[in-house]
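Backbones bend. Shown next:

***
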Amino acid sequence: MIDRRQAEAAFYAYTSHYDPDNSMIRHKIEHTLRVAGNCERIAVSLRVDDDDAAFAWFLGLLHDIGRFEQVRRYGTFVDSVSVDHAEFGADLLFKDGLIHEFPAQGLSPDRLALLETAIRLHNKLTLPGDQDEETRRFCDLIRDADKADIFRVVTELSFEERAGTSKGLLQETEGAGDAVMECVLQHRCVPRDLRKTRFDVCISHCCMAFELVYPESRKIVREQGCLSRLITGRDADGKPLYSAKERGQMSIVRKEIEAAWGESLETK
């Protein structure tokens, strides 16, 4: 069983080496802890045993460990202009030995291999088709837990803060491109190379909802209300953030997500 107090202490010790006044670092710490909680909640909903629930929580705690060094070295969360943060984090843990700073000694070699695999794959567009049942379950679980909180992140952290040094890479053209909207109609995530504008990125975040695997994940998203706010596109004062064209495209996004889910995005 993972010692959670030791694991959290190790996490805070590691992240203490990074600038706490940097909003990207602060939000990533908060995101990590929420994802760990989401992982455990989803795992419990699947009626797994206590060891598996604790392992799911631990996976959530470590899934974005590469983000902190990514910010320090590159000043951005944009993988395409820096590093693949999932691969980077897995390398830090399992090639550079960072995992030894965490209470993972009681994990079997198979569990450590599963941990590494799930961390490496948590941000990939698709998963390999040849995974065994247990590996697939934990990969789906961390991906769901992560996506569920990303909806919160993108409503709380501005584009400029998330993009950091890469904020000028996207066009300012109004609305989403046809290829992006085709992904919406096909109920799939948007490949990175199709995202040309800020609004394309916004649509791509919404499209993550299509790939949530577990009912509990969708329940978390509905309870948060962040996906619905992202689609509605209003600031804290209720002022619309989207143009008329963009609001029309977002209405299509909402319709297609609700069709895919078979339920409303709003809490009942």
In short: The longest helix spans residues 133-156. The chain has two domains: 1-167, 170-268. The two ends are 36 Å apart (CA to CA). The chain has a mean pLDDT of 91.
